[in-house]
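Worked example 3 (structure in, sequence out).
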């Protein structure tokens, strides 16, 4: 539940349902807010839902492809690491996921921000490393659906859609390897 004082904005939402199953964390990518720039940069709604706590918030829009690319790269890089911490950033604000992978292949994910130059942890959850990588993989698949729906699979932005599909294939193979 919530702890701390909501008056100062100084609170932490913790969710650990035991056993590290991770069902309550989701990475949400949807086209409630969809913008494509001439450069091919795609903004969509992108946030983390931890048991009903939305981080950075439910209507956060970000550069989804670079964010997911960064997250997938760091997740896969951590495969053999033990007691390893890595930072998964959002591109358009002072928000990130601080991920700690332990020797048992479990991860602790802290939702952090440094608004007003004050470091805060907003939410914490735990799950297996494989489950976390699977969440990033699913987010990539959700992005591909949005790109397709918005005709990015053809024309001047087809290379972006192709890149997304390549990364999905890489992540699928990676998940099969770590199973």
């Amino acid at each position: 539940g919530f702890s701390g004082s909501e008056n100062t904005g100084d609170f932490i939402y913790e969710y650990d349902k035991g056993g590290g199953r991770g069902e309550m964390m989701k990475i949400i990518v949807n086209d409630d807010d969809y913008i494509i720039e001439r450069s091919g940069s795609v903004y969509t709604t992108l946030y983390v839902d931890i048991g009903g706590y939305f981080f950075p918030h439910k209507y956060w829009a970000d550069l989804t492809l670079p964010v997911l690319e960064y997250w997938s790269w760091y997740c896969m890089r951590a495969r053999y690491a033990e007691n390893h911490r890595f930072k998964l950033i959002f591109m358009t604000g002072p928000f990130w996921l601080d991920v700690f992978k332990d020797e048992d292949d479990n991860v602790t994910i802290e939702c952090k921000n440094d608004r007003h130059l004050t470091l805060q942890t907003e939410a914490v959850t735990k799950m297996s490393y494989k489950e976390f990588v699977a969440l990033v993989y699913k987010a990539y698949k959700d992005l591909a659906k949005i790109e397709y729906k918005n005709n990015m699979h053809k024309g001047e932005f087809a290379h972006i859609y192709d890149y997304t599909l390549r990364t999905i294939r890489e992540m699928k193979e990676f998940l099969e390897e770590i199973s």
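Notes: The chain has a mean pLDDT of 87. Residues 33 and 44 are 5 Å apart (CA to CA).
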